[in-house]
């Protein structure tokens, strides 16, 4: 493989930024945000340079690596701190640093009144560095470092305003649920090492050709657990809604565009495992399908704009996971949807931040309305993102989602029909809840009181939104033109585009069905919210279904009943057992043993003397013992 | 002069120096103690530089006849295992002195006595790891109890006297069992080539024992060590001792003294009784896994920050013990590295928790709140220490914990899988106190707590630096540890399992 000595700068720049900002403390308050942004932009520039270099090489030689040093070496467990940049990871590098830099710029203004803005930028830089390590590591263990690094950054940013107890709890919940996923990643690595003898991507890929299906299935299922934790997929999804406690730029960058898509990366990167482990692959599809409906249903009932978008993120990642579970036919489309989603969802989150900025941090959409007139740029950029996510041609989401729906149908047989129908149903619900967001926020009559003075955000905020909106419009077309993205990325999967083209349904039929689904969803939402009156307070006399959806399909109640309360009971039970039973036994033995000497001790003071007695006894025993045995 | 002897002699010279300083000049006494421990630390680093890691036999060896009629020698030497532990001990000592600058105040005796005890303890800490004569090891093993007993009972807080006695009785009980085994070994050596306490010669003796004898002698050693490095269910002395001792004493107790237990398992249990070790491995692995999970749950349920840290250590010692008895190179090297890393991450936790407690006048977690906004540097130090305790990748403890897990998995997958649940529990037992003490609104009584002063920053900074540096680059230690681990396993007749689906198939 070609080596490149500049890969490390991708990570080193933002990492240095984070360290400088954290260690310099208040001294860096004046320029911290500028340094942080510059470091992210610098990393983006290195990424562009790498892309340029990569384009100049032939398909077979595009991947480059860099070995930094030997990290861990014990017996046959040898892990290099090594980086790998190929056609897959360059997509992520540019997404992370590109969208990341835009969000840095946005945050300069968004966080300008926060006294801890420098710390915020330090965390953002830490996140960028960790996320880059995640996608650049050349082994599962290197990936793991980035994987937990982004978890840490996410934890710190969700809890950025952790003086509010609810926010502190939200950050802890995210970390702990992510750790359940990390457990999966740990076990996947252990199985890989025990059965395949390697944990590097290349080593595992090579060994996977002659490995047993049982081992690969085990690794695959554990990787899926990891992906579910990081990407908020069923059943580890419950943390994402609460994660909206973080400042909105964080929601845009980490909890929409990049970190939560790491699970998709992990599965696509591990294509060689899933391709040879059909059971694990089927589970991936099932998890994706459940989550895409789960998120969409939750999205229909949320009044908090950020939580509605978070539910939508969960659902859209469900699409990506589903596509990744469809194997070589779906990998490229999973990545394509991931990239287009990165643009339109980040754009919409920034738009939500812009709305909150203009509305005194109000997040309840029932208190919005008619903001189109007051925030025209936000309305347009958000609107373009909206058109993209619901899949209206020629916006980005249309292309990427359509391809997933089509591939789902083409999975064949009953599986294909079930998956295809699920993705279509999801598209209809997506159209419904996103139209609801759009209408409640921008086009329905105003429902806010006169204390509110909505206004458009400053240029540092709307410019990133505008750039992301351009991406929401154009990327789908660009990626699919001549199958550009698929041709670029498929060589990573050992696929050279020669697979059979067998369509259950003609693409045009799928597009027609998808558009019909979208129209139905949009129509219902318009009827319900644009052309009927909306209450400023959420109505309480609603159906059981609405109530369940508002409660995130009871996810927290279920987790509490299944894990939290039994766990708490176990903890307090063990605490009592430890004191009464184990230590109690010890105390009893101790009391009995010392009982004999207690009479003696009454005449004494302090413990030093009793110690001396014990020492004496010990010494006598020692001497006596040796004397006896040497006789 | 042999640098091991130098390291042991220097603290003794320090105590003499302190002894001549007038009692009321406490600053001079503290400075003398700090200077001595720093000097020892430098000697320790030089020793590490001069150590030849390609050589698996004992180095810096010295043997002097002590009690010739019993074949007892003053015999010292180090291999990779003991070198790493000595290095850890001598690096932690000056940090303990600096961090606990005012710990001796409020004690039953003077600062002078306190620092003499600390320095005497330092000599013993080096000696216990360096001893290659079983009798010498035993003497130091027992003698170490004395300074610790007085440090807890004389300078601790709360129920310090009761805790000190509990610690003492537990340890003496273990020590007595070990003594019986040592005498047994001595007898057997007399019947087979002459009385000796030399560890290398004694490691041949298992060839002459019946399996019952070997099992019994093994248990004598093992129970003593399982009390030291508390293994469930022999752990209940530790939380009491840690909660009562001064933070500095706790660091030495949990960070160094308890390691004598896990060190002893490798040095004595495995090499003296290889067959018995195999016999008891399933039981020990089970107890280790119980410790991991049990310690974690008790840490989650702990209301006192010091007790919480003690319980996390029980969980961590479970990992170390599991790694040792997994009998793989990854498990072994991981366990040894774990001992070193645990020393530093527990030191960081105890030191900062001690500062928090002395400022607030309480170590109850619910008495704290919002410290991140009152004392940011102290809060960050605690947070990083906590991240190290939960083995965040990028910090040193991740490397050792993962090595232990992967090394165990290749031989005992079920144990490793259960132990892996520990990483979720670790997130809880760290993040719960972090949330309660550092986050949320500022709790009453916390508004005016002072942040770390310069001395305290100087004390905690090197600990955090070691934690971060070894997380990214553990090679300096692994290079020393690996040959020693490989040697032990070779003597035991173990080879690493080959990958089940490897290319050769």
Describe the structure.
Chain A has helices at residues 7-24, 32-56, 87-110, 117-136, 140-158, 165-196, 201-208, 213-230, 239-242, 248-257, 262-269, 271-274, 278-301, 305-324, 328-358, 371-374, 376-390, 396-409, 413-443, 459-480, 484-489, 507-530, 544-550, 555-601, 607-630, and strands at 2-3, 64-74, 77-85. The termini of chain A are far apart. With 631 residues, chain A is mainly alpha-helical. In chain A, 73% of the residues lie in helices and 3% in strands. Chain A contains 25 helices and 3 strands. The mean pLDDT of chain A is 88. The longest helix of chain A is centred in the C-terminal third of the chain and has 47 residues, at 555-601. A 3-stranded mixed sheet of chain A has the order 1-2-3. Helices cover 73% and strands 3% of the residues of chain B. Chain B is mainly α. Chain B has a two-stranded antiparallel sheet with strand order 1-2. In chain B, helix 2 (26-50) packs antiparallel against helix 3 (80-99) and helix 10 packs antiparallel against helix 11 (247-272).
């Amino acid at each position: 493989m070609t080596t490149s000595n500049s890969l490390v700068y991708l990570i080193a720049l933002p990492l240095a930024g984070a360290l400088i900002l954290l260690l310099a403390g208040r001294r860096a308050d004046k320029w911290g945000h500028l340094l942080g942004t510059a470091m992210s932009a610098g990393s983006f520039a290195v990424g562009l340079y790498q892309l340029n270099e990569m384009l100049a090489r032939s398909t077979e030689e595009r991947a480059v690596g860099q070995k930094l040093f030997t990290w861990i070496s014990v017996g046959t467990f040898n892990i290099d701190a090594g980086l790998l940049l190929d056609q897959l990871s360059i997509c992520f590098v540019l997404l992370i640093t590109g969208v990341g830099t835009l969000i840095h710029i946005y945050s300069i203004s968004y966080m300008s009144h926060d006294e801890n803005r420098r710390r915020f930028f330090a965390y953002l830089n830490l996140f960028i560095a960790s996320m880059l390590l995640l996608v650049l590591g050349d082994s599962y263990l290197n990936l793991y470092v980035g994987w937990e690094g982004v978890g840490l950054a996410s934890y710190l940013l969700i809890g950025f305003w952790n003086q509010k107890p609810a926010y502190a709890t939200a950050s802890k919940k995210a970390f702990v649920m992510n750790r359940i996923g990390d457990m999966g990643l740990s076990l996947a690595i252990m199985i890989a090492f025990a059965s395949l003898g390697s944990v590097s991507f290349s080593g595992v890929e090579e060994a996977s050709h002659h490995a047993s299906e049982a081992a690969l299935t085990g690794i695959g299922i554990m990787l899926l657990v990891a992906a579910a934790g990081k990407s908020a997929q069923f059943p580890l999804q419950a943390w994402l809604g609460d994660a909206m406690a973080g400042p909105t730029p964080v929601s845009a960058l980490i909890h929409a565009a990049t970190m939560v898509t790491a699970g998709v990366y992990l599965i696509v990167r591990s294509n060689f495992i899933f391709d040879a482990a059909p059971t694990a692959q089927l589970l991936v599809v099932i998890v994706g399908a459940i989550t895409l409906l789960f998120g969409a249903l939750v999205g229909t009932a949320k009044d908090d704009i950020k939580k509605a978008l978070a539910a939508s993120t969960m659902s859209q990642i469900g699409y990506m996971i589903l596509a990744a579970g469809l194997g070589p036919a779906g990998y490229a489309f999973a990545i394509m949807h991931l990239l287009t989603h990165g643009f339109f969802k980040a754009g919409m989150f920034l738009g939500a931040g812009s709305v909150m900025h203009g509305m005194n941090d109000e997040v309840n959409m029932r208190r919005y309305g008619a903001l189109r007139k007051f925030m025209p740029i936000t309305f347009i950029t958000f609107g373009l993102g909206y058109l993209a996510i619901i899949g209206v041609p020629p916006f980005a989401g249309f292309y990427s989602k359509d391809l997933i729906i089509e591939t789902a149908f083409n999975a064949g047989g009953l599986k294909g029909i079930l998956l295809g129908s699920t993705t279509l149903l999801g598209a209809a619900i997506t159209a419904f809840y996103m139209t609801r967001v759009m209408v409640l926020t921008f086009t329905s009559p105003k429902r806010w009181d006169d204390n509110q003075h909505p206004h458009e955000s400053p240029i540092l905020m709307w410019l990133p939104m505008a750039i992301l909106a351009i991406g929401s419009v154009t990327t789908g077309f660009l990626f699919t033109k001549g199958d550009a993205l698929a041709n670029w990325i498929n060589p990573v999967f050992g696929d050279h585009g020669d697979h059979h083209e067998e369509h259950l349904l003609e693409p045009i039929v799928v597009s027609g069905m998808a558009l019909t689904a979208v129209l139905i969803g949009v129509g219902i939402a318009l009827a319900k919210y644009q052309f009927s009156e909306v209450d400023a307070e959420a109505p309480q006399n609603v159906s059981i279904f609405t109530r369940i959806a508002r409660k995130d399909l009871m996810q927290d109640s279920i987790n509490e009943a299944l894990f939290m309360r039994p766990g708490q009971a176990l903890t307090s039970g063990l605490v009592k057992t430890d004191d009464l039973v184990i230590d109690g036994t010890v105390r009893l033995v101790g009391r009995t043993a010392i009982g004999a000497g207690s009479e003696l001790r009454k005449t004494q003071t302090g413990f030093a003397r009793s110690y001396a007695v014990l020492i004496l006894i010990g010494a006598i025993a020692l001497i006596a013992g040796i004397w006896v045995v040497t006789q | 002069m042999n640098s091991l002897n130098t390291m042991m002699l220097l603290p003794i010279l320090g105590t003499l120096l302190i002894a001549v300083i007038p009692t009321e000049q406490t600053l001079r006494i503290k400075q003398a103690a700090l200077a001595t421990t720093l000097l020892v630390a430098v000697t320790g680093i030089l020793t590490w530089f001069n150590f030849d890691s390609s050589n698996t036999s004992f180095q810096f060896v010295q043997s002097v006849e002590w009690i010739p009629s019993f074949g007892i020698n003053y015999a010292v030497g180090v291999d990779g295992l003991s070198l790493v532990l000595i290095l850890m001990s001598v690096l932690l000592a000056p940090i303990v002195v600096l961090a606990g600058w005012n710990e001796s105040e409020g004690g039953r005796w003077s600062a002078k006595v306190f620092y003499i005890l600390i320095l005497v303890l330092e000599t013993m800490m080096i000696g216990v790891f360096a001893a290659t004569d079983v009798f010498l090891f035993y003497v130091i093993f027992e003698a170490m109890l004395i300074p610790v007993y007085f440090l807890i009972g004389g300078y601790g807080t709360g129920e310090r006297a009761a805790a000190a006695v509990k610690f003492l009785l537990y340890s003496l009980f273990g020590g007595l069992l070990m003594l019986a085994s040592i005498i047994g070994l001595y007898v057997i050596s007399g019947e087979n080539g002459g009385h000796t306490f030399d560890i290398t010669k004694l490691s041949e003796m298992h060839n002459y024992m019946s399996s019952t004898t070997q099992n019994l002698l093994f248990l004598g050693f093992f129970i003593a060590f399982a009390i030291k490095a508390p293994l469930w269910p022999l752990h209940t002395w530790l939380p009491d001792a840690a909660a009562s001792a001064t933070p500095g004493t706790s660091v030495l107790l949990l960070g160094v003294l308890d390691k004598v237990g896990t060190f002893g398992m490798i040095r004595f249990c495995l090499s003296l009784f290889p067959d018995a070790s195999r016999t008891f491995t399933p039981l020990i692995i089970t107890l280790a896994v119980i410790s991991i999970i049990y310690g974690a749950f008790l840490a989650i349920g702990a209301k006192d920050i010091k007790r919480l840290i003690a319980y996390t250590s029980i969980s961590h010692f479970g990992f170390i013990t599991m790694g040792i008895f997994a009998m793989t190179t990854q498990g072994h090297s991981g366990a040894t590295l774990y001992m070193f890393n645990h020393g530093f991450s527990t030191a960081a936790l105890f030191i900062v928790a001690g500062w928090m407690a002395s400022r607030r006048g309480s170590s109850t977690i619910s008495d704290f709140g919002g410290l991140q906004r009152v004392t940011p540097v102290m809060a960050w130090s605690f947070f990083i220490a906590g991240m190290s305790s939960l083995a965040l990748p990028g910090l040193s403890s991740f490397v050792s914990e993962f090595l232990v897990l992967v090394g165990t998995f290749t031989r005992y997958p079920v144990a490793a899988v259960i132990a892996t649940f520990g990483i979720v529990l670790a997130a809880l037992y760290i993040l719960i106190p972090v949330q309660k003490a550092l986050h949320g609104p500022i709790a009453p009584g916390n508004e005016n707590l002072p942040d770390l002063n310069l001395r305290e920053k100087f004390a905690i900074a090197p600990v955090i630096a070691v934690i971060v540096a070894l997380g990214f680059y553990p090679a300096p230690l692994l290079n020393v540890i690996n040959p020693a681990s490989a040697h032990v396993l070779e003597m035991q007749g173990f080879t690493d399992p080959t990958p089940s689906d490897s290319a050769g198939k």
